[in-house]
Amino acid sequence: MKGEDNATHSIRRRTYLGIAASAGLAGLAGCSSGTTASAARAPPKVPKGALEAGGWEYIGGHSLDPAFERSVGPASVSAAFETVVYEDMDLSETLKEKTLGQAEGQFSLFFATRVTLDPSLSNLPETVRGTVVDLVEKHARKHYETQLSDVGVTDIEQTDTRSTTVDTGDSARVTDYGATISFDTITFPFTDEKEFTIEGQEFDVSGMLAVWEHDGAILVAGGAHPGENIELSVTKEPTEAIEVSVDIDLGLTPDAYRDELRSLVKGVE
Predict the structure, then answer these.
(1) Domain extent for 160
(2) Is-above-0.85 flag for pTM?
(3) Which domain of life is it from (predicted)?
(4) What is the pLDDT of residues 93-117, one digit of tens each?
């Protein structure tokens, strides 16, 4: 008996990418203020051609204005955030189809946020500018990790910190993440009186967060996706006369998801 569709009760309950909220970066808020950032505010530009070609769809966006006001050295800096969030709908629909409609949720997300500062980042002294970018990056990492934790992701760790050149030519600081998520025990009926149970499993989650300066603002972009394929083979003997085998293979391709996410992040401006 092939049971690819039978594994999905837990998948539906635990779609880890409720992390759309991580794009909001509310954790950056710090001290609220009644003032607003006077510089022009707008959502970041995203690579719409690549998103459309990859089956991604816009699922939401929001503003946080004012977000914070801080004294950094001799300067007082306030900020506003504009965020857009996209879901890999092709992947979601494929998994839904493979599991006969039972695996529903967000499996890969991409977000981008523009942090608009007043005064503009380009008008701040060099020493202050670096401190402000560091502050945004620190809080962005913290909030990203908190959002993962809030939706049941565990063993969250920064696996690498590196620099990359984005499509505009700017240098971004990138933090790569690895984590795990537990899927609950799966139980489905075998006969009117017997059930077939597959014990809970842990699977890998991968993600990234990038921060860089561009045209006097700070851009934050990243996302998360399955870090390994969900593939199981279980054999049980509910009676002495019957042996039942269940094979689960969702055909996930983590390397391709990682490369696509990195390309989308680089295309933000």
Answers:
(1) 15-178+206-226+253-266
(2) no
(3) Archaea
(4) 888 787 666 566 778 889 999 999 8
**Is 83 contained in some domain?**
yes
> Which structure tokens are listed for 193?
């009186």
The answer to the question of residue 242 being in a domain is no
Q: What are phi and psi of 171, to 5 degrees?
A: -100, 125
Burial of 106 from C-beta contacts in 10 A (0-12 / 13-18 / 19+)? buried
If phi over 0 gives left and psi between -120 and 50 gives alpha, with beta otherwise, what is residue 5?
alpha
The CA R_g of the chain, rounded to the nearest whole Å, is 22
Please report, for the chain, how many H helices and E strands are present, in that order. 5, 11
Q: Within a domain: residue 247?
A: no
DSSP state of 28: G
**In sequence order, what are the residues at sequence separation of 6 or more whose Cβ sits closer than 8 angstroms to the Cβ of residue 213?**
121, 129, 133, 170, 219
Residue-wise pLDDT for 111-129, tens only, equals 999 999 888 888 888 888 8
> Does residue 162 lie within any of the structural domains?
yes
**Looking at the 3D structure of the chain, how many domains does it have?**
1
Any bridge partners for residue 98, and if so which? none
